[in-house]
Amino acid sequence: MRKPFLILLVVACLVAYLTIPANSYAMIQKLTPEQRDAAIKYGKKGVRMEVSDFIKEWSVNNGDQGFAFIITEFLALAFAAQQAAMKSAELNNFDIEDTLAKSAGKLVFRVTLFGNTDSFAKDYTAVVRAGVKTVPATFWNNPPGESYGDGKTKPAFVTDSDFYFPADGIDPNSMITLVVQDKDGKEVTKFQFDLAKLR
Fold first, then answer.
1. How far is the C-alpha of 167 from the C-alpha of 69, rounded, in Å?
2. Closest Cα partner for 108 from 83, 85, 79?
3. What gap in Å lies between CA 145 and CA 154, rounded to an integer?
4. pLDDT (0 to 100) of residue 28
5. pLDDT category, 138, cuts 50, 70, 90?
6. Rounded mean pLDDT of 110-130?
7. Residue 9 to residue 49: CA distance in whole angstroms
8. For burial by CB atoms within 10 Å, which of 16, 35, 38, 53 has the most?
9. 96, 27, 35, 104: which is closest to 58 by C-alpha?
């Protein structure tokens, strides 16, 4: 049986394409040198952490309705540092700048979803609702589902979908809702994130 949390480790590859001041605890879109150091320190610490604990600050768990987390610049850099530390390596300046450049200006979500066929998520899209704004995803990826449960007590299939949105115009201190939709625009599931609490 596949364990979705283990698959979340691949997010370090996706974004490659502990203490900071309280007044910095909004979704940071441009990291200061101190915040970069904090992200790298957190990433190194993450080598010894369960994946679910490592991403807990950035995640929302809706049980059998799905699990989602948002990849901020802080988390992207932390993931990169974690992967480097697993190889007993350090991030150099190019690695840091490259990771942040590829994360800049985006809201990226990874969503674990459950269904009853291997193609259940094929046509899923998503929007972010932020106040009166509804922002459609500019890119998404829905891999075929993998075997998960018996289809009775547990859903038969699970997949990890990725949704990308432009961050421009979204208040980094706001509450937003990620809404996953089917091909007809009907809500499949949703996840609420308080950006003011995220690094």
1. 16
2. 79
3. 14
4. 57
5. very high
6. 97
7. 12
8. 38
9. 27
List Cα–Cα distances, 196 to 11, 24, 80, in angstroms. Answer: 23, 9, 23
Q: Which of 6, 109, 115, 110 has its CA nearest to residue 64? A: 115
**174-178: long-range contacts at Cβ-Cβ below 8 A with a sequence spacing of 24 or more?**
174/130, 174/131, 175/130, 176/107, 176/128, 176/129, 176/130, 177/128, 177/129, 177/130, 178/68, 178/70, 178/109, 178/111, 178/126, 178/127, 178/128
Which residues lie across from 108 on neighbouring strands?
71, 164
**What pLDDT digit, counting tens, does each position of 76-102 carry?**
999 999 999 999 999 999 999 999 999
Tokens of 59: 């995640």
d(CA 157, CA 114): 6
Calpha distance 103→14 (Å, rounded):
10
Q: Are 28 and 199 in contact (CB under 8 A)?
A: yes
Tokens of 159: 């997949």
The residue whose two tokens read 């850099």 is 77
Spatial separation of the C-alpha atoms in residues 156 and 149, rounded to whole Å: 4
131: amino acid identity, one letter: G
pLDDT band at 23 (very low <50, low <70, confident <90, very high): very low
Query: Token pair of 51, please?
Result: 């994946």
Assigned token pair, 107: 């809201």
